[in-house]
């Protein structure tokens, strides 16, 4: 039994984590390790993508898959503790999610724009809009569960 409200579009726009080109990928091929049409590198690396201001906007606005963002800073102990768990979560969440890290110290404009008051903070974006937020460090299982639950 299929539910027409739950069907994925025939193809999705995926922003390349390497060159930021927008690629159209058939939904059925999302898990088949697609490569960028421009730079020929993998569209999904199984690791968080470090993004700064201009690149960040393109990824959240042009990607048809949800973008999970970790706002963090290198001096933050809980951020450093969560980093390996976030990397593990990226391996499990891709290609259904783009998993991103934003250094709030380097990208202070983004931290201000999204009113990041504590780090680490996870934020989930869909269609260019923030749909969920969770401050505080989590392990990989909880990151995956939180992202999946808030993507419904």
UniProtKB/TrEMBL annotation:
GO terms for cellular component: cytosol. GO terms for biological process: cell redox homeostasis. It comes from the Bacteria. It holds the Pfam family Zn_ribbon_Thio2. InterPro entries: Thio2_N, Thioredoxin, Thioredoxin-like_sf, Thioredoxin_CS, Thioredoxin_domain. Keywords: Disulfide bond, Electron transport, Metal-binding, Redox-active center, Transport. Residues 19-152 form the Thioredoxin domain. GO terms for molecular function: metal ion binding; protein-disulfide reductase activity. Belongs to the thioredoxin family. This is Thioredoxin. It comes from Duganella radicis. The lineage of its organism: Bacteria, Pseudomonadati, Pseudomonadota, Betaproteobacteria, Burkholderiales.
């Amino acid at each position: 039994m299929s539910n027409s409200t739950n069907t994925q579009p025939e193809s999705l726009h995926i922003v390349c984590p390497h060159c930021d080109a927008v690629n159209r990928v058939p939904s059925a091929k999302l898990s088949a390790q697609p490569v960028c049409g421009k730079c020929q590198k993998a569209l999904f690396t199984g690791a968080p993508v470090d993004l700064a201001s201009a690149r960040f906007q393109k990824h959240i606005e042009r990607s048809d898959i949800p973008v999970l963002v970790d706002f963090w800073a290198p001096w933050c102990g809980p951020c450093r503790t969560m980093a390996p768990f976030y990397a593990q979560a990226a391996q499990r969440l891709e290609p259904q999610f783009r998993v991103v890290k934003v250094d709030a110290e380097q990208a202070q404009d983004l931290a201000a724009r999204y009113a990041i008051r504590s780090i680490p903070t996870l934020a989930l974006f869909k269609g260019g809009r923030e749909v969920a937020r969770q401050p505080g460090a989590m392990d990989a299982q909880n990151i995956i569960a939180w992202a999946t639950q808030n993507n419904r």
